């Protein structure tokens, strides 16, 4: 478990498993994920046509089995309204498909899955109440939900559900998060030691190879688990940060988010004597933006899934600003966006007080480069539609 040093804000977390700690920033504060996931929502909405194509490939339950619920899972749901919106979209689309075949509409069940540290309380507060007056009335009401809901805490790199129990798996903006920072990246004696950096953008080849290996191992474990849990005829829709460059040291939008102003802010803390260089070097963002080839290699090696669609999709900027010419607003937007997804890890590593100092410097630096950020900070996503072989 975590230990405290002489300074109560200097928390050592190297011996604390990432999956027990990693989460988007919970609650409803200014830097919370709930209030800073609009960009993810916009990106998800821009891909709805691809999601619906995947749903059109799902095998419908035969009329003789209409007492069996149709089961949907969001893997890496986090705690914002985006996951609720997506589940609504999936349920409504599948209800219409059942309607067109004159089959009785089954009951729907949705599982919201994320790591145990996720703020499930905030998520559940966003769920509309379940209607109790029958499915037809429920579906006709905008103020009630048309499915049974439950939260499932656990890592999606392992089994989470009974065999052959899930019709649709959905996962967006989560699979680029690794199960751990590769050990060699934090080993001073190893050539992959990421000295002077907190991310792999621009790092040496050995470091990026370690990250790629970790990503592909994690994705292989993910696919093995889902291949056992998915019903025959089910489908899976996956979205994760990706890159267009073949060079893994160029992490694209993720690199601009974590590897420039964020990196420089850590260096500021070192130069100002607020943290040691070793403290900085022991912090690495466990994110890897794969190329489409990185992703494809793992799916094909696994052999359990047919690739129905695999593409790189331009998602747009992670920054949501009302006045792009307002440099202060752009700087603030970048700092808050960065904190909403990495703040929990930062605070665990250096404490909340130094975390405040760090993100203040991120904001200052981003404000000075606001025009460049507006023009160049774009996310690309790997989008995959898979079904069992």
From TrEMBL:
SUPFAM superfamilies given in the database record: S-adenosyl-L-methionine-dependent methyltransferases (SSF53335)
Short name of one Pfam family: Methyltransf_7
tRNA-binding as UniProt keyword: no
Originating species: Solanum tuberosum (Potato)
Gene Ontology molecular-function annotations: metal ion binding; S-adenosylmethionine-dependent methyltransferase activity
Record keyword Acetylation present: no
Keywords linked to the UniProt accession: Magnesium, Metal-binding, Methyltransferase, Transferase
Domain of life of the native organism: Eukaryota
GO terms for biological process, alphabetical: methylation
Name of this chain's protein: Benzoate carboxyl methyltransferase
InterPro entries, per the entry: MeTrfase_7, MeTrfase_capping, SAM-dependent_MTases_sf
Family named by the database record: Belongs to the methyltransferase superfamily. Type-7 methyltransferase family.
